Each structure stands twice: as C-alpha cells, then as structure tokens.
What we know:
The structure holds 2 protein chains of 2 kinds.
Chain A: E1 2-6, H1 11-22, E2 26-31, E3 45-47, H2 53-60, E4 65-68, H3 79-100, E5 104-108, E6 120-123, H4 136-150, E7 154-158, E8 161-162, H5 170-178, E9 183-185, E10 191-192, E11 195-196, H6 197-210, E12 221-224, E13 230-231, H7 232-243, E14 250-252, H8 254-271, H9 280-287, E15 290-292, H10 295-301, H11 309-322
Chain B: H1 8-13, E1 21-27, E2 33-41, E3 48-52, H2 63-68, E4 74-78, H3 94-107, E5 114-120, H4 121-132, E6 137-145, H5 157-163, H6 167-174, H7 177-181, H8 192-199, H9 209-216, H10 227-236, E7 244-249, H11 257-264, E8 270-275, H12 282-285, H13 289-300, H14 320-326, E9 333-337, E10 342-345, H15 346-362, E11 370-373, H16 379-390, E12 394-397, H17 403-414, E13 418-421, H18 423-431, E14 439-442, H19 443-447, E15 468-473, E16 483-487, H20 488-501, E17 509-512, H21 515-518, H22 520-524, E18 527-530, H23 543-553, E19 557-560, H24 562-571, H25 577-580, E20 584-587, H26 594-603, E21 608-615, E22 618-625, H27 626-634, E23 641-646, E24 651-655, E25 671-676, E26 683-684, H28 688-694, E27 697-698, E28 701-702, E29 704-712, E30 718-723, E31 728-730, E32 733-735, H29 737-744, E33 753-758, E34 765-771, E35 776-777, H30 780-790, E36 797-801, E37 805-806, E38 812-813, H31 815-825
Parallel strand pairs in B: 3-4, 3-5, 5-6, 6-7, 7-8, 9-18, 11-12, 11-13, 12-15, 13-14, 17-18, 17-19, 19-20, 20-21, 34-36
Antiparallel strand pairs in B: 1-2, 2-4, 9-10, 15-16, 16-26, 21-22, 22-23, 23-30, 24-25, 25-29, 27-28, 29-30, 31-32, 33-34, 35-36, 37-38
Amino acid sequence: MKVFVTGAGSLLMGQVAQALVARGDEVVCLQRRPLDLPAVPAEAMVQGDVRDMAAVMAAARGCDAIIHGAARVGVVGSWDDFRSVNVDGTANVVHAAQALGIERVVHVSTPSVAHSGHSLVGEGATPAVTGRSGAFYAESKAIAEIASLDAGIVAIRPHLVWGPGDTQLVGRIVERARAGRLAMVGSGNALIDSTYVDNAVSALLAAVDAIRPGAACAGQAYVIANGEPRTVRELMEGICRAAGVPFEPRRVPMGVAKGLGAVVEAVWPHVRDDEPPITRFVAEQLGTAHWFDPRPAQRDLGWTPHVTLDEGFERLAAWFART
Amino acid sequence: MTSAAPTALDLEAYGLDPSWSHLVDVPSHDGGTHRWHLLDRPGTGPTTVLCLHGNPTWSYLWSRLLRELDPALRVIAPDHLGMGWSEQVGTRPYRDRVADVRDLLAALDVDGPVWIVAQDWGGAMAMGVAVHHPELVAGLVLSNTGIAVPAGRSAPWLIRLAAANGVHRLATRTTPAFVWGTPWLPGAHVARRERRALAAPYRGASRRDSIAGFVADVPFDDRHSSAADIAAVAAALPDLTIPVRLVWGSKDPVFNDDFAEDLRGRFADVALHRIAATGHLTVLEASIAPFVEDAIAEASAPTAASRLAEPLGPSDGIDEIWSRIAGGNPLAIAVSDAASGDVVSRREFESRVATYAVALASQGVQSGDRVAVLVPPGVDLIAVVYACWRIGAVTVVADRGLGLRGLGAAVRSARVGHVVGPAKAIAAARTLRWAPRATAISLSTLHGAPVVAALGDVALPSPAGHDPAAVVFTSGATGPAKGVRYTFGQLCAQRDAVQAMYDITHDDRFVAAFAPFAVFGPALGIATGFADMDVTSPSTLTASALDDACRRIDATMVFASPAALANVLATASSPTPALAKVRLVMSAGAPVPIDTLRRMSVLCPSAALHTPYGMTEVLPVADVSLAEREAIAADGAGRGVCVGTKVPGCEVRVLDVTGGGVEPLPAGVTGEVVVRTPWMSSGYDRLWRTQQTARPVIDGVVWHRTGDVGHLDINGNLWIEGRVVHLIHALTGAVSPVPIEVAAETVPGVRRAAAVGVGPIGLQQVVVVVEDGHDAQASRELAAAVRAAVTPQVVAAVWCGPLPVDIRHNAKIDRTALAATMERRLSGRSR
C-alpha cells in the first residue's frame, strides 16, 4: 500500500510515516519544512503546503491511502491562519482523494473539537461543536472534522499524546519542573486518560487499514487513548520522574487557571509569537476528569493500545537517559 | 391575555433544554382559544408521558424527570391555564381543568393513549381525565395527591388554612407565601436553585390569581360547586382497569400516608411505593424516572411479577401450631426467661395465649388487622405474638436493633391498627406519632383479662394458610428498613424447614439469644429459653448467662448471632455441664468466622455447629456445618465464603449479574444468587418497585433476588462473594471488591482498604481507598505497593481517606457512599 502522509513534521505524524515504512508500506510525506526521517527514503519526502491544491494533488497521485495530519496548532495566529491550514487544507485533501479515487482516508482530529469544559467520564466521541468564539484551533478543527466525516472519512482524536521527543506535554512539564515553576491546575485529582505516542501511531495505522467505503468506521470519529486513566498528579509525577526532575508543583486553583487562561488566550497572540504557558482549554483539560469509552475503536478499528502507561514511562525514562 | 414564555437563558438556568419550551394555542371546549406554555421533550419511541403539576408550581416541577427519563419516551409537561407561563385565567373549576387536558392532548400530535404522571392537584385532574376520557389514558403514576379526604380524618390543615376566609387571598395571592412555602414544607429536600425556579412565574400578585383560584376550588364541603364533579370521579375510580402506580413521599404534611392508603383502596390495579425520606415534592426531591419507566415496562410485560399471584406458601398445616402448643406434657416448661426469672409451663403458656387472644379480640383487634408488638423479649412477647396469630391478626415486630428512630420508621411504614406493649412503650409510640390512629392495648389490660384456660375454649375463627401473618423488617443496611410480608403458610413452611434441617424433635429445648428465633419455639412444640442479656446488643451475652439459660431448661440447642458467640468466647473459662449437653449450636445474621465456630466447639464439645444462609425475605436458603467447612477449607481456598448446600425444598440459581439472563450459569461462574422456596415471603410492604425488582419471574414463577453475588461449585456448595450493589463493573466484566481489598490489606501499614468503581457501568475504573486520616491521593510509594499487591487488577487511583462505616452493621464499610465520594473527588470538581 502506498500512503500519503501530511504533516510529517510533527512527532506523531513523523512516527506514523516511519511505522508505515517499517511494516513494508510505501509512503509519500508532505510537510512545510525540509525534514529527514531516518526510516523514510529521501525521495519520499516532499516539501509543500496543504493549502497548495496543486502540491497536494501531485503528492497524492498514485497513492492508495491518505493519513491527513497537517494542522496549525496552538493559540498564536489569526483566524485566517487557522482556517486556511485546518479547514482549507483539509478540503484540499478531501478533494484530492475524491479526484484521484483514493478511498482510504484518515483525518487526524483532536478531542478539543467536542470540548465543553465539563468533565467527560467514560464517554465516546461526542459530535464536534462549531460556533465557539476565540478558540481558533478547536473551531477550525471542528469544521474540518465535520467536513471529513461528511465525506465518509474516518476521524481519529488522540487524547493527550506524549512520549519521547514530545515538546507539547512532556517538554512543557519537564522544562517548568526543571525551572521550579511547575504548576498543577486544581487539586490534581482529576482522572485523565492519555495516549503514549506509539499507541496513537498504531491507532492511525489501524484506522487506515480499516477504512474503506461502507466500513463501520466510515464517517465516524473515535477518541483514542491508553484506556488507563490516572490522576493528573500521577501523570505529571510520572513524567517528571522519567525525566529525572523533581516533582514539586505549585497548585493553581481551577478558577484562577481558567481566568488566567482566558486572559492569556486574548492577549498572548498580540504580544508574543511563542506558545503561552496556559490556555483555558489546557486548564479545563487538566482540571476535570477526561476519560473515554475504548469499545468503539476496539469494535470498529480492531485496535487496542499495546504500550501500557508504565511501559511508556520506562521508555520515556530511557530516552531521557540517552539525551 | 397571554403571557410571555420564559427566556432560553432562564430555562437553561433552570436546567431545562430551551428547545423543549413551547407556547401553543389550543382550541378550548369553552369556545375560545387558550395559549399554553409547555415543555415537550421528544422521544425516540411511540409512548408519551404527560406530566400534570400541582399547585402552586409549574412544569419546572418535572425538570428532574425530563432530564432523567428514558429518551425513548416523549414527555409533555404543560403549565395549567393560569399557572406558570400559560395564559392567565383566574379561577377555573375542576370540570374545566379536566376538559383542558383533553383539549391539550387533542391539539398536540400525540400517538395513542398516554401515561399520566401527576402530583398534588394535577393528580385529581389526571384521575378526572382517566374517568371521563378513558381512551386517552394508558396508565397513571400518582405522587402525593388525592381525590377525597380519607375516611376518619379531616382535610389537610395546610390547605384548609390557605383556603380559610381572610387567610386565603393573603396567603395565596396578595403575598407569595403559598408559592414560597410549598418547597419549604417539612421534609422537602428542595435546593434553593429549585425553589427560585418554582417561584419564577409567580412574581407579582396578579400572576398568582390562579393559585388562589386553585385553592378556592378545593371543595371542603358538599355545597362547593366542584364537590359533585370530584365525588363523581372518585366514585368511578374502582371501574378503571388501567394500571395505577403510587410513588409517595411519606414526609408530606399535606397529602400524607393516609391519602396514599385512600387511593390504594380505590383502584383495581394499584401498587404503592412509599419513600420514607421525601415529602410533598417527591417528584423533584427523588429520582422518580425509574418508577415511571418500570410502570410502563411492567404494563407491557405479560408476565410481570405484580401480575402473577404472589407466593403465599402452603395452605394447610396451620392448625398444627395450635395442637403443638396445646399438646405434650402440660407441666413441662414452655418458656423460661432468665432475665426476669419467669418460667411458664406448657399449660400456663397455652392459657396465656388463649387469654390474650380473647382479650385482643375484645379490644377490637380483628382478623387481618396489623398489630405492632412492642413487648420486650420474654414470655409475654411470645404469648402476644401467638395470641395475635390465633385470631388472624398480623404481627408487626421490628428488631429493636434498628434503634428508636428505625423502629419508629418501621412501625409507621406498616400502618398498624393496634399497638400492644407495656404502658411506657405505648406512651413513647404515641409521643413519637408512630401510629397516631392506632388503638393502644397495654400489657396490663391483657394481664387483667378474664382467664381462658385452653386454646380449645377460644370461640374465634383461626386464620388460613394464605392469610397474612407478619410483617418483619430488614436490617436496613442501605436506607430505611424494609417491611417484608409473610403468610401463615410461609411461616409454617419455614418452621418445617428448620425442623427438618436440624432434626428437631419434641425432646429438644433451645435457648434463643436472638429474639426473632425465640418466637419459633412454641410452633416447633419445644421449650424456649431467653438468656439474661440486652437483646438490642447481642454482644452482651456472657458465657455464664448462656450457661445459666441452658441450665434452666436443660437445653439441647443454642441459637445466637456471631457477635453473641464472640462475647461468650471472650468471657468463657471452661466447658460447663450444661453447655456440654448442647447438641446443636446455630449462628446466623452475619458471616461467622470459622475460628469462632472452632472455639465454640471446644466450649460445647458434643455440639454440631451450623450456619444457615438466608435473609429476612427468605430463610433458610442453605446450611453448612463446621465439619463441612473444615473439609472444604482443607481443599484449599475458594472464592468467597462457603455457605454450604441448599436446604431441601429450596431452589438456587446463579444468574448473570448484568441482568436479563434467566439461564443458570455453569458451576464455578460468579453471578447473582436467586432463590425460590415454599417458605419465601410474599414480598415487600408498600414498596411496589422494590418488589418488582427483587421478585423476577423466571420460567413462569416468582423468584427472589438475594442481592448477593456468588457461585455454585461442582459439589453443589454455594459460595457468596459479596453484594451485587458493590460490584465494580469494569470493561473486563464485573469485579468483586472483596478480593482486591483482601490483597490491598497485605500491604504493610494498611489496616483497612475498600475498593470501589467510578464511572459508568461497564467502563468503571477501580479505585482503592486506604483508611487514613488524610483525604488525599496516596503517595507514589504507597500507590505502587497497593498496585503491586492487587496485580493483575488494574487500579486507576489509590486514595487515602476515611472509610464511611454503616453504623448499624458496625464495621461494615459503606461502599456505596464511598463510591459517590470518590466519583466526586476524581472528577476534579471538588477536593
């Protein structure tokens, strides 16, 4: 099978491309910056932008499947920045698939498309919600997911991906802990499920294997996670221990964190161009319980996580020991 | 005049989906068109539920039901005309109110007859609709309502006060007292947010016109214009064939238990579920959705338990009770009470029963009447019970272990007609209003009654096997004690089962350190001895008191609770001649540690030590002797506690705990234990839904769900592994907390641990709580140690905190309360 992978510059999508090659598939990777992935032949790496319809068509031509992971993330940027990459870019991929007759397409989505700010306990993938003001990332991803599902594509929402090389969750926690500035939202008692990166990779591969017109997963969204909810405190402590940094968090009350996050979201994009320390979304994600029903993915994708949380922490520790 | 609908913002604040709210113009039988406000929650199925609120509320009253009811059901909750956000109409007579409901149903697109759920005066309207338009109504669920003032009492004083001249307009219209007062009625568990929502449409006196009108339309005398209409509806109720289910908050000072009883007597197909803890607004205070769902499901199921005859037990063999009391050696001891020193011969006992029976009858006790027996353990307790039975009265005997409050709640729930006891107990019952309208019969009245020498001299009819005999109470481990009904036939079958199980003959004599057992003595025809102890506290039985009680009757058998035996062992020095003659020691009421039995066998060397398994609703189910337990223990540890093999005549099945399945599970597979025997009780008292849930129909007959989980092994031994309600329903299946707790308690420093599940059924995560003064997550080290100990069970979180304990079952951890606490803690919402 020849698979077109977009957004291979991210940790997750880079590993997806390599995993496909490792199991004998051919890949074509599209990413904005020059990139070298050890397992992927250089000629399979195409530099380009998903907003560029011609580039997408050219790269996708001759492929049997697409895993679309290119996205603009974070809070910095204008609505146009987010819309053009996440909404228009996805539209380009969907269009290319239809034009080229590619029937197997996986859309990499995010749990934030259905984020309500409330705790989610044992829920499935609730429908994406649009019409939010302010949250450009979630809004643009929600529009993109709805369009993808309408086109019969399967959407995968990996929940809190972490692992070696991850700059989003692990990077931030370790950097702050090292600086003695680690903050824990609320009591740290909320049960949170997370996804070790290898499991997110295997879920995307399972999805690309399962998707075809008329498949149970066609037009459906799935939340992916390890299925091992732990308290926020245990997760953060586990990451800090793996990195060999002390775990001495300051506690930030939930209300304060949310308020701070809201202010940061409003002001940060105008004054800074790096990612802020906290957003309302992060505050709510880490301050309220978030764990999910693993059965739909098990049933429709035939997928179960193969790396446990404890194994994940060991691998993370080994990686920190090497770097 | 029309009224504004509540805004979407308001409705959201009330916890209602704004899309449910509609203003509908309905053509009326009065020739005009009225604008109604209603909440209409669409359903995915064909059935519609119509909710009729009372006065002075509005459709918000049903907010909890709207949120919780099965999404298959469409729910329509209108504001009555003039009420809530519907058009103002002022006083509107009952006749028009009933016609209004028909108008509304005609205007809405409703498929087929509806179920009406109604409260307060909505209930009177619902009954009117059912009588005048029977084609529109599939069934009724009524809560704290009424159609007429029950016989023997006056109208609710609160409504009479509100309707009284001078007070009426002041209370109901000029001031918001009535609107604000209703949710404050004693016993109501209504949050401030709910009280505000209930009062929202009634700001300003002009908006309270209909409230005043509603109260004015309550007919307190026959001259009232609506009196004849309401009386006509009341008179027609017995002809209704639809199912009527009553869900009643017993703390309601307005429509109290008397109204529930009144309605219970008015319908052909009716059942009552009494909720001890809630009041007038029970539909908002309690989760009534399961009641409505079950009522509808039951009506569509052809073999629902309530439609089958309840088990009544054998119908013959009852008169043997009297022949056993009257027969035998008249000079032999019948009852001995070591506490008072009383000893009565069989002849004296027979005379006492006969005397009391005639005296009770002359005090007005009739066959079928319920009698609260508040007599302390002793000769008179047994004599009064048999005297009641002789004339067919139903004894209500609550274990004093329930405590004064539990005892009161139990007596109150049984609605006794008579109270028998010493003057002090009767005064207490009266002061505490346990049975305000019951006749009080003091023991001194019975003592002073003309002596009747023999049972043969009692010229009163005796009861038949199918007649009700007793209401006994569960221990109340979860919520208030539940009343359980027995017939004479069931009690006799129970007696015969016990007799056969332990080969009891006329030569046996037994000491009962547990009052309920003592009552069986005369029916078995054997001497009964009470030990000198505080029966409310079984652990007060000392070795010397037991020895003394045995010596007085030359006992061959001892029945005692495990706590009593534990104290006997703690106070014992060496075997005594009296204890050495005991051939059987039976202990029940709680799991009996094997070590207690081993040490008892040293104290009573010739005794077999037996532990029956059963519950208030069905006893006995199984039995195991110490010797059998030793043999089983030698085979290696099993899962749970072995309670032995089933008693002959008892059927035992183990069913899938997730419900639905009626096929017995294979040996070794854990599930819920269900049983069936001729001596199983008829069922629960005034707990319709409990009855329905606990008494499934399997293969066309009624069984009893024990609520215990366990399995049958290949040798037919029954093993109990815990309670169904405590199971943790994880993705991998149902997990019993007990083995997890046992493993966690092996971690050094962990004295006690409890395992509970958080999250939805089928996806629950296991949380282990280690008893500790803190209330916080366990340290990393402790969590790791606990996880290692319980491997391969995966644990989501380890918590250190206090373990809530059920006081009535000292030391039993209240896992249900703990699960709720942990659910909250781990949601991140509160500390």
